[in-house]
TrEMBL record:
Organism from which the protein derives: Sinosporangium siamense
GO molecular function (one): metal ion binding
InterPro entries, A to Z: Glyco_hydro/deAcase_b/a-brl, NODB_dom, Polysacc_deacetylase_ArnD
PROSITE patterns documented for this protein: NODB (PS51677)
Keywords assigned: Hydrolase, Metal-binding, Signal
Protein's name in the database: Deacetylase
Domain (NodB homology) ranges: 55-231
One example of a Gene Ontology biological process annotation: carbohydrate metabolic process
């Protein structure tokens, strides 16, 4: 019997919610200022991992927490690997215990909006609402507001970055994406990860995709055999915090 039930659907998390509270620009500004005060730098990676010396790779997971997140955390712990999780606010509201566990086990948490909309299609006050609401939910669950965000679908522009900066958030993108939501097959996902793995790379996956979690033991074993240390995005930066409004990896 497979570890993860195929009935768990990642796509359920990708349907944007239209029923969120609206706010005036003045209210959004006030909310933004409060959230920026709560933003804290990510917890540092264990000092034994020095990415200036060893070969590091950051595995990142979007769209959780989900039913599959717990088994993924078990696998990461077994392989002594760290990762970065970009969480959806409404999912944190449903599963705050999973968000707490992610933080407690030394992984990094970022903001992935409240309901997964394309931020570039929203007015500024709604972008602020999506990010601010999620900041508060994650802070309530874990005791710390994220210092980074990742825009759903990678949809970003200068306006999105400006709002993120006003909230004290940097933007984390990726060097390679598995498109696991489309592949949905263990071997294909494994091949995708291994083909794009490179030193200081940032690989995008989705923890609500069951096949991704099923593939992780073999992915982690193969990456470690190649000499990779699997770390958080912050560890790749070797202790340098990202500035609000900064994008990493840098946009070309």
């Amino acid at each position: 019997m497979r570890l993860i039930a195929a009935a768990v659907l990642a796509t359920a998390l990708l349907i944007p919610s239209t029923a969120h509270a609206t706010s005036s620009p003045a209210q959004a500004t006030s909310s933004t200022a409060q959230a920026a005060l709560t933003t804290a730098p990510p917890r540092k990676q264990a000092p034994s991992v020095n990415c200036a010396v060893v070969k590091c790779l950051a595995l990142t997971f979007d769209d959780g927490p989900a039913k599959t997140t717990g088994p993924l955390l078990d696998i990461l712990a077994k392989h002594r690997a760290k990762a970065s999780f970009y969480l959806i606010g409404r999912s944190v509201a449903r599963s705050p215990g999973l968000a707490r566990r992610i933080a407690r086990e030394g992984h990094e948490i970022g903001n992935h909006t409240y309901s997964h909309p394309r931020l570039t299609e929203l007015p500024g006050e709604d972008i602020a609402h999506q990010l601010d609401r999620t900041q508060r939910l994650i802070a309530k669950a874990t005791g710390r507001a994220p210092a980074t965000m990742r825009p759903p679908y990678g949809a970003t522009d200068d306006r999105v970055l400006s709002v993120a900066e006003s909230l004290g958030l940097a933007q984390v993108m990726w060097t390679g994406t598995t498109e696991d939501w489309r592949l949905r097959e263990e071997r294909a996902i494994r091949r995708a990860v291994l083909s794009m793995a490179r030193r200081n790379g940032v690989i995008l996956m989705h923890d609500p995709v069951p096949a991704t979690v099923e593939a992780m033991p073999s992915i982690l074993a193969a990456l470690k055999k190649r000499g990779y240390h699997l770390v958080t995005v912050s560890a790749l930066l070797r202790g340098r915090p990202l500035s609000p409004g900064e994008t990493y990896p840098p946009r070309k």
